[in-house]
Write a structure and sequence with these properties.
The structure is a homodimer.
Chain A (H helix, E strand, L loop, with lengths): L9 H19 L6 H8 L3 H8 L2 H20 L9 H18 L1 H12 L5 H22 L9 H20 L5 H14 L12
Helix pairs in contact in A: 1-2, 1-4, 1-6, 4-6, 4-7, 5-6, 5-7, 5-8, 5-9, 7-8, 8-9
The structure holds a DNA duplex.
DNA sequence: CCCCCTCCTTACTCTAGAGTAAGGAGGGGG
DNA sequence: CCCCCTCCTTACTCTAGAGTAAGGAGGGGG
């Protein structure tokens, strides 16, 4: 063996590759990332990438898949049936924003990446749609007397969209999770112009 | 001359090229669009593209620039000082969503495209930031007694984010402009769960 | 002890597609 | 009438980077 590379079991190597791929993809985007760059980051030779993942597309898909799963897992606390719907929404908000905060490097850009990739958009949209459905459900449960024609799904779309926009600012370090969660919660229940629920300044 | 191509003045040809480029870029994304494809769509030979625009990047930048300008222009009616801030916001919302509805093919994808291109993200973000500033300003003007610590910019970020998410659904034909504008207006002033302002069903 | 499976590498091939070289024709101005 | 500017084309070149061929070494199981 030429390189200083150690023999490792496939499962371990695969995760290392995925780690490297997520990093480089998120830094440079799908098209501006070469398999050579990923191989270099993972400290492995390129043919290994092809041996384990087959192609660049499949490797990227594997990244999306793993990160998407983690994302969904991060949101499970919000499913706690012991909480009121409103608190569930609060927890969902914090989980979502907390996830972005903790995984800015890996997830947020991947999310934006994959979303605008159209070969992979479908794959991401499914994670995202689950989030929207969850949100719609919580909104519906928390609304005391909904009007007959109310479309909770489109409301959820709006709220999740707002969440994504705010999440970008979190990833950019311009605002912290708590402040963002407060803002979005108030947005949902009272509108932007409404009074804040938690109210301490200075 | 071999092709059936007619001699046209540069200014005219440039616009045709831009039209073609916007179409193809929005259909396939920046990286999945070849200069050959654009040339074919514009019914012109590839060297003309290079003669007038220099490179693929510059051509794309020219697209962003033209569409961005049109986008900003579409929003100017909202600046009418004869309107109340709240009506200005309503007009801005309708202008924005109306623009997306009318230019789904060209703009929305370009917007998403360029935004996630990082070589061009800055260029788009500037149009977008103008939109956010405008929105923040309108929110601030329409709020009767704002709390001292209120961050109108981040509110505007959330609202614009919601608008973009809803705009995607408009582009997808899942909802119409009026309904979306109603939703977003109510979102801004009353929250998702609040009663609709306009209130007719079935 | 040796077989063979898995892990791993160096050193290629091949093509899409960005960008260019070289030259031709219309047509207005002198 | 002819010069020359602008518009336009065919037919290339060149490279980044996806993907592959061929082979080598560790080490557990028989």
């Amino acid at each position: 063996m030429a390189g200083g590379t150690k023999r490792l079991p496939r499962a371990v190597r695969e995760q290392q590759m995925l780690d490297a791929a997520v990093e480089v993809f998120s830094e440079n985007g799908f098209h501006n990332t070469s398999m050579d760059a990923i191989a270099a980051r993972a400290q492995i030779s390129k043919p290994m990438l092809y041996l384990y993942y087959g192609s660049k597309d499949e490797l990227f898909a594997a990244c999306i898949s793993r990160e998407g799963q983690r994302f969904v897992e991060a949101l499970t606390p919000a499913g706690d049936p012991g909480l009121t719907p409103r608190d569930q929404l609060r927890v969902a908000l914090e989980s979502f924003l907390g996830f972005v905060d903790a995984h800015r490097n890996s997830w947020m850009v991947l999310y934006r990446q994959a979303m605008s990739q159209q070969a992979f958009a479908g794959q991401v949209r499914s994670s995202r749609d689950r989030l929207i459905e969850l949100t719609a459900h919580l909104l519906e449960s928390s609304t005391r007397d909904p009007e007959p024609g109310t479309d909770f799904v489109i409301m959820a779309v709006a709220l999740v969209g707002a969440g994504e926009a705010v999440a970008d600012r979190i990833a950019g370090g311009e605002i912290d999770v708590e402040k963002a969660a407060d803002l979005l919660e108030n947005l949902a229940w009272r509108g932007l112009a409404g009074k804040k629920r938690t109210d301490q300044h200075g």
